[in-house]
Amino acid sequence: MEDTTKFLQTLELDMVKELVRLCDKHHLTCFMAGGTFLGAVRHKGFIPWDDDIDMGMYRNDYDKFLKIAETELPYPYKIQTYQNTDSHHYYFSHIVDTRYKVRRLGSLDKREEYVWIDIFPYDGLPNGVGGDIFYLRLLFCRFCYHMAHFDKINIVRKDRALWQRIVLKMLLLVHKLFQFDKDKWINKIDALLKSNDLQDCDRVMSFMGVKLQKEILPRSVYDNLIDYKFENMDLKGPKDKDIVLCQMYGEYMKLPPEHQRKSHPLEVLDR
Fold this sequence. Notes:
Distance between the termini: 14 Å
Shape: globular
Mean pLDDT: 88
Structural class: alpha+beta
Helix content: 25-40%
């Protein structure tokens, strides 16, 4: 497993370099998100047992990047979105390495995917009660979207909240009774997220992130990015790291118990 994790990390680091190269070329901003930012702060690189990379982009830059990547990503890399790849059921996008595939083992559907890195759009959340109601609308759409792709949900993911795991186990028993249109709900999410101008909002969020409300932060946090060491390169992240990481992970400099240090359940098919 350690050898597999190191192999995937090497591939993913090369993909991040291509992402940064294109962003620099076109004056776009990308930054570390989730466990990748935690890894940079705590380990100055990958969390040793982590086998993926999460990057974020402001919505306007994200949409521009998707168009640029279609034509400018060199072989063996490719941008995958739910619009250009039928099998890509995620709302956020992937840069993939088309030389290597993995089999995902954590969901009902043991699907095959190219080795990837995640790129999340960061959107504005309106202020006050109106923004909270807007977020509830988004959560309902997200629920329906996940029900349409229930067989692809990682039901064994260790960092899910207890209530999420309980709900998923209950839905596992009844999901075949529900009929949800996947295109309808992913397009509703897209339209809602794009309906707010980030500059008019005091809050910013990575809505499809696994941490849900913990990924809602003051926009000012992402207005001030600095370089952090990540393996053999520098990647941007919020200067106010404590605000982000304490909210998402609590005592983030403390290592989790060994039984929680898990990689994605997958196997590499092409090596």
